[in-house]
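Marked as duplicate of an earlier ticket. Keeping the data here for the record.
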Amino acid sequence: MNDQDRATARRVRARLEGGARDAASLRAALGALAPLDRDAWLDLVLGSGSPPDDGPELPRGGVPYLPCPVDALVRAIDAAAIGPADVFVDVGAGVGRAAAVVNLLTGAEVVGVEVQPALVAAARALAARLRLARVSFIEGDAADLPPPARAGSVFFLYCPFSGERLTRLLGHLEALARTREVRVCCVDLPLPSRPWLEPLLRTARDLQVFRSQDLSVARLRIVRRRLGSR
């Protein structure tokens, strides 16, 4: 990243900390950068330092914190058509980087769920410094989807965990899908097939985006496939 890009990042950061909001300009600035520079540039804009070390609160099967690549995050925003009316739930929010970006680019309300207290404290400090009134963080086990997160319309999973913990989370999401449509975005996480989820994005190697479908329709499709195979 060159000196001009660093200077631009500092100017954008000053405007954000002053309360200015211009999603189109922020997105244009990201798009104008070389792809390999975008994450470092964004970290300068957000004032992100080195994250706290993972603590003993990280559950068995949990994945140590790593920030999601900004390009994958922007593609998820587009594929899931996230907008101001959405409630975006970041499952395993870390220091709040993805939560801040989604709110700044879309205006959506954001709820981050993170089990490690030090990361939650860093995320809350970021939201306060950038005056992100519609961004909040819950300290809790994301696999159990704490109640405030169950108001979500879009759920974002950047390789948070697998196995039994992922199965537990999907059970909570299926229960929500019985009441309304939800969308699920997965980065670097092959999601197990579920009849209540249909793909919105089929071609990206690192990104999967799904939406829930009417469960009665899903069951009917399963029955028809079974009958057709006889």
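See parent ticket for discussion. The two ends are 60 Å apart (CA to CA).
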